[in-house]
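Objective 1b of the project was to move from sequence-level analysis to a structural picture of ligand recognition. The entry below was assembled by the postdoctoral researcher (A.K.) and checked by the PI before modelling. It contains the amino acid sequence of the target and the SMILES of the bound compound, pyridoxal-5'-phosphate.
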Amino acid sequence: MKSLHPQTLAVRAAVARTAYGENSEALFLTSGYVQPSAEASARRFAGEEDGYTYGRTGNPTVSSFEMRLAAMEGTEACMATASGMAAVMLMCFSLLKSGDHVVISQSMFGSTLKLIGSEFARFGVETSVVPQTDLAAWQAAVRPGSTRLLFAETPTNPLGEVCDIAALADLAHNAGALLCVDNCFATPALQRPVELGADMVMHSGTKYLDGQGRVMAGALCASEALVREKFLPVQKNSGMVLSPFNAWVVLKGLETLDLRMKAQSAQTLALAQWLESHPAVARVYYPGLASHPQHALAMRQMGGLGGAVLSFAVKAASPAQARARAFQVLDALQVLSLCTNLGDTKTLCTHPASTSHGKLSEAQRQAAGIGQGLIRVAVGLEHMDDIQHDLDRGLSTLA
Ligand SMILES: Cc1ncc(COP(=O)(O)O)c(C=O)c1O
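Corresponding predicted holo structure:
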């Protein structure tokens, strides 16, 4: 399998077919497994023989998803989890202990910041939060001897800030720490962090891996040693497992990931260019645009594509007016969805300042660059004319 192209692995990597010869991978809805003999059962429970024993410790459909995603990310192994946040939890719980230190970017997904920065602080794990794109700040935050983990998300939500994975990997390794990259926005179709030096890749499978907004899922891709020796023992006992049904949905989603990411990225670039020239728009944030501060790095790191999420700010004279104007654009939508998710074939629009970043103080939001006039668009597969026309319904009334 290893010599095959990623596109081939995305439709072929899976556990072996059953005796029935099914062409599409089977969905195994079972919580228990009949053992071939008491001796075999004992060996399996002792970890001396491979074989399924109980749904919390493994399932063939889940294994197929894990094998396929690992093949696509170029890692030796993968562990599926119930959601993206369960993957973050599993990683931190497996790798950190009291007295350890973590460095993360201030632009990470809000729940990631809260889980690591607040919840794990209760157990004596210290966290430094640094600006996403400031390599010197990452370097300065590292504490040799106690920093165990650097965790970055690139590009970020909602401003698409990009960090240099290879540079962060060097920094982590020089300090004896590991680097994990949340690859939710780029996916392995555009970016393979392990090839750039990262040790672990974290996914919210809920997003592009599913691709059609159906199920929650998550995963951690890493070396066989990390998965078997660190993640598996914790997962077995904590039970943050992916359900076989959700695994099956995401497994089938992976088959079209490459096509979707390329098509949706092309649509997003076209929409970004149109928005940049719109008289009601103050600024567009998209790594695929030459105006983006990390455009060159993004193109190098993401296979020449910018991904399928952009944000734009409407022109306004004050934060209150900006919020009213952004709401006007969102409330005028008739085709696109007002929905705080991303990674769907349907275009989803959201107002970060009152949803994903609604719990931040105004000062924190200002520091993160999330203004009241900002609208995030996760671009889907509708015809571009219809996407533009729907956004222009509200935008044209502002100009
Ligand atoms: C970048 C990023 N990471 C992690 C998560 C968490 O994933 P989940 O919602 O599957 O737990 C999300 C969810 O929106 C996300 O956008």
